[in-house]
Amino acid sequence: MIVKKLKDILDTKNDIYGYNWNSRRILLKKDGMGYSMADTVVKKGTETFIWYKNHYETCYCIEGEGELELADENGKKTGEIYKIRPETMYALNGNEKHYLRATSEDMRLICVFNPALTGNETHDKDGTYPLLD
């Protein structure tokens, strides 16, 4: 049985900050579940290019609003936009390149990754998390 509380993650090594986001990594590879889970805040007014070529990601919005815009193989915006609001789930089951924007306020997402994150990943120049052991 694994039980964790967000307050126990805050301000620890599992509370990761990026320029546009903050990822509180709750469940990690070392927990042995085969997937990981994070409570992520995307900052209002920001846009982040992301491409999880090594992972599948599913996100469920619990606060705020934003949008996801798909990108082509070169990272160019396609104009295909999905509005993200509370009670909205999106799954990147094709390793889609995309831009994530928080529009009206900070957007809070519960994010699940497969394979599991170790907790040490940061986005590289391609917007990708590398596979770490």
TrEMBL record:
InterPro entries associated with the record: Ectoine_synth (IPR010462), RmlC-like_jellyroll (IPR014710), RmlC_Cupin_sf (IPR011051)
Catalytic reaction(s) noted: (2S)-4-acetamido-2-aminobutanoate = L-ectoine + H2O
**CDD domains recorded:** cupin_EctC
Q: Into which EC class is this enzyme placed?
A: lyase
- What keywords are assigned to this protein? Lyase
Pfam families, alphabetized: Ectoine_synth (PF06339)
Q: What is its EC number?
A: 4.2.1.108
Do you know which NCBIfam families this protein is assigned to?
PRK13290.1
Function, in words: Catalyzes the circularization of gamma-N-acetyl-alpha,gamma-diaminobutyric acid (ADABA) to ectoine (1,4,5,6-tetrahydro-2-methyl-4-pyrimidine carboxylic acid), which is an excellent osmoprotectant.
Q: Member of which family?
A: Belongs to the ectoine synthase family.
**What protein am I looking at?**
L-ectoine synthase
This protein's species is: Lentibacillus halophilus
